[in-house]
Specification:
The structure is a homodimer of 320-residue chains.
Chain A: H1 4-13, E1 16-21, H2 27-42, E2 46-50, E3 68-69, E4 80-84, E5 104-109, E6 120-123, H3 130-141, H4 147-160, H5 171-182, H6 187-194, H7 199-210, E7 213-215, E8 220-225, H8 227-233, H9 244-248, E9 255-261, E10 267-273, H10 279-285, E11 289-290, E12 294-299, H11 303-319
Parallel strand pairs in A: 1-2, 1-4, 2-3, 4-5, 5-6, 8-9
Antiparallel strand pairs in A: 7-8, 9-10, 10-12, 11-12
Helix pairs in contact in A: 1-3, 2-3, 2-4, 3-4, 4-5, 4-6
Chain lengths: 320, 320
């Protein structure tokens, strides 16, 4: 469903809005929220924005970020609840408490797994980012895209297609990003912010990279992060999210693995493949899942056990 | 001068071409050469390509890379010498020996410092990459851009604007990249290749990141690479070219410095600023130069001396 026109009519009719998006916020949902907020304000609407989580420090550069509130700070006098970038309602956390019979719920998302909740939907699984859909909506609403909105939407698109590097990068995503550039988006500022790392995170990266391991004539490479090293470094679990990319980019590595000890939850394994093996199948074998080139699974037990089992399985696959 | 039409006429009239570009080749000049080579072949021309240097391993993924020859492998029977992405003729190294009265020299470049050499020029300092100019030329020549050519041109644009992150990213660069995507460019393959690192390079990165230093309440951060560590790691000097980015991305760092010991040539200093100080001025003070946000200089003397002098100077500037 792409009820762009219905959303336009609803916005024209109503005066007060709450915008929200998924927990564990990222550049796409925060950028989308801020651009839509600015657009609705331009149309003279009252707008509140809530996210039931902490906004990561690397997104604090976005103009208007201070207007994103926690669920409990919201005044429940809005007529429309617009839910962005959330495949199901539970993804918005405590903001769910504001659901009631009087409000209209609008569901705007690009996840293929969207459950189709809400009274009006604008769903487009072909969009590389929710920001792409918000751009279409802004055109439909005939608002002027200023440099702050352009920066927010560029951030959304760049986040979800890895700065135009991932295979999900579409011609349309690049076209919109180009338009946002023309409207005043500042890619260097965005990339500086998105890629910023804390000093503890960088020191942890250094320590784990020194212990990088390879097998299968260099076709397999992996990193392990134990809880003691993480604690000693002062870095957070989230800081390690991108670490697998360092392994992935080793020349000759067909398969990259990242093993992370999570206290009380065993070992989290991330897997990347350049195509030589199907890591989705591999992850499924261990009770996880994902895609052919990017997947993951979890283990109860020690870091060493998890490492041995997965490494052995990948070696076998690579031998075939 | 943008003599697009004259270049088209010349190509229509002549049958045999030598294409070349600057030494220390990169994604832009190699991508531009390969796309132009394919275009001329499509038009039924005989084409040789020479670069007086080793093509970096991370560009070997480009289709047709094996057709790039060294200067001495060229048969001197061509009528036209097309020089790409080279601000002056000395940048093409030994390929200069093929200059003579009989050939027509075409100069295609985007560097603002281009000396304007050659018989026909297509110079556009507003272009983010030479690949952008080659795209325009391919349109002028009315050739069909296949997926290999698209991949080569996307590589050129992505290289020179840092995958659309640098401040030189233009709307036109993004538009052309979008068109190349539509023609079959594969951004993930390109980014995987461009960002690939050797295991020794990664181990060296780990070692130097562990010794990252900060001053001025975290506003200044720097890395030093001594020759002994470099040799011990098995990495090459070129491997360290991107290391300054790790310093640049530290949260709170306004100025990033990279000190590299170069045997027999003293210490090479790279400087990056987010705007708090003008590193061009700073570099000029030490006999170097560059831009406001990216500059460099060289020192005779030890790594320690160079570090002390530059760090002190930056601290003074930051105190102002």
């Amino acid at each position: 469903m792409k009820d762009k026109a219905k959303i336009r009519e609803l916005i024209n009719q109503k005066s007060s809005f709450l915008l929200t998006a998924h927990i564990f916020p990222d550049g796409d949902n925060i950028g989308s929220l801020l651009a839509l907020r600015a657009a609705l304000q331009q149309l003279g609407k009252r707008v509140q924005v809530a996210v039931d989580d902490t906004v990561p420090a690397n997104l604090h550069f976005l103009a208007g970020i201070e207007h994103i509130k926690r669920a409990e700070e919201i005044t429940p006098d809005f007529q429309v609840l617009m839910i962005l970038d959330s495949s199901s309602v539970d993804r918005i956390g405590a903001v769910q408490k504001y659901f009631n019979e009087q409000i209209t719920v609008v569901n705007i998302d690009h996840h293929i797994s969207n459950t189709g909740f809400g009274n009006i939907q604008y769903l487009d699984a072909a969009a590389a980012a929710t920001a792409e859909i918000i751009f279409d909506l802004l055109v439909e609403l005939n608002v002027t895209i200023d440099s702050a909105m352009a920066n927010a939407l560029f951030t959304g698109i760049a986040t979800d297609c890895g700065f135009f590097k991932y295979a999900n990068t579409t011609v349309k995503a690049m076209e919109i990003a180009g338009k946002m550039l023309a409207c005043g988006a500042r890619p260097q500022e965005i990339s500086d912010a998105l890629e910023s790392k804390s000093l503890p995170a960088l020191k942890l990266l250094a320590r784990v990279l020194e212990q990088i391991q390879v097998a299968a004539q260099g076709k397999l490479a992996w990193l392990s992060i134990d809880e003691a090293s993480l604690k000693a470094s002062g870095a957070s679990h989230e800081d390690t999210d991108g670490f697998i990319n360092y392994v992935r980019f080793i020349q000759g590595a067909e398969v990259a693995l990242l093993f992370r000890e999570v206290p009380g939850r065993g070992v989290k394994v991330s897997m990347r493949s350049k195509g030589a093996i199907d890591v989705n199948q591999l992850a499924q074998h261990f009770g996880g899942g994902g895609h052919q080139k990017a997947a993951g699974c979890s283990f109860e037990g020690s870091l060493q056990e998890a490492t041995e089992r997965v490494v052995r399985a990948v070696e076998e696959q690579l031998r075939k």
